[in-house]
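DATA SHEET
Item: assembly model
Revision: 1
Owner: S.N.
Input lines:
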Amino acid sequence: MAEDLLKLGLHGLHVARGGKLVPFAGYLMPVQYAPGVMKEHLHTRSAAGLFDVSHMGQVILRPRADYGATALALEAMMPVDVLGVKPGRQRYGLFTNETGGILDDLMFANRGDHLFVVVNAACKAQDTAYMQAHLADTTEVLPVTDRALLALQGPLAESALARMVPGIAVMRFMDSSVFPWQGMELWISRSGYTGEDGFEISVPDTLAEAFATALLDQPEVMPIGLGARDSLRLEAGLCLYGHDIDITTSPVEAGLTWAIQKARRAGGNRAGGFPGDDRILLELADGPDRVRVGLRPEGRAPMREGTPLFAPDAMPLGEVTSGGFGPSLNAPIAMGYVAAAFANPGTALMGEVRGKTLPVIVAELPFHPTTYKR
Amino acid sequence: MKYTEDHEWLRVEGDLIVVGITEHAATQLGDVVFVELPEVETMVAAGDEVVVIESVKAASDILAPVDGEIVAVNDVLSDTPALVNEDPTGAAWFFKIKVDDLSIIDQFMDEDEYMDLIG
């Protein structure tokens, strides 16, 4: 099995730092280091954590002629205002399918004369082919295969990174810029997937080890594995593709309506015109039948993915799509889908864990307040 | 102390066998956040799932190593599951089991054999 798995460019560094490696999305990835998930999670919330997310797909969309034509072609693939993203800014996007489900979620940045896109690891081959099929007339779709992707997250991320890359401190949440480092380019955005302030840094493979080592030499910074990445994003109420969102969930059901800007909604300048627009615009108008909610189990038993959820009268309502333990809350937390009538925070539901029916309360998302530097 | 292939330790205390998990197992599990203990006075058979341990990452079962009756459980673990990581072979015992014949413990590995198992 291990032979079939791809190794990250920084594999040697993860091994040297004591990373426990597991298969994830076709890669051998560090799930945790010696301190363990709990300490890594709390360190990221109090200082700064370095995550290797090089398994994710980095893609350049280079317009053949006109940036606007590329932006509009990308708008035909998702219910998002691409054209309105200004140079040096990044935005969250979603590829939808004809039935209004989600093919993948992604980040894209306007880098002046082209776009830079980051997609999920498990979807990157499919996404790249899909973009090539839909954008070919206007755009060269160029997978970036010679760069690592790192995320530095936490309240001290700025001070640690600024020591190495002067100039990043002026960036605001979702800014995207290029900075020189040792004669090459770092592509940096002020973003991440932990709920904390932080940065995502695309670095050439040839410099990745030197750059990661220099970051880890900063007193605030600790390497963080996939385990804490998952508990951090869950506390932040963020969706994990393939779990909380997939081809069956619409962006409206998933509570991602903030990602659908006015221009693409009914009455907007470029309303509709994306896959699944019938269903998505209807759900925006009338509300969806089911909704993604936050869940706080009342006891200490975590409710994991797949836990069935019921109304107090035992009527089935849906199931947990992500669940575990929130180290910052010192309590179990989960997200899942329930019928819309049961989605208000405070609603008492039941979840079935190992044959026992246990109480769980619908909760506001995020569980842990976000600290983005807006 | 004796050891099972499932990374439990067993020690004799009076006419009972006390069961917990090894330091190796606790390290592999990661931070334990929840422990579900059996009811006392439960009759169990070797191989029955008697304890559920949840770490930050996942749920695992602890199996009864021998046939017998659960006569005591360590309720402290319900409120302080992290004790499993802090003191797995001491304060964080899981249950005490009454067996017909204490010599059954001889069939399990000694410390040297267990150390060979985990390499």
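QC remark: Helices of chain B lie at 23-29, 76-79, 83-86, 111-118.
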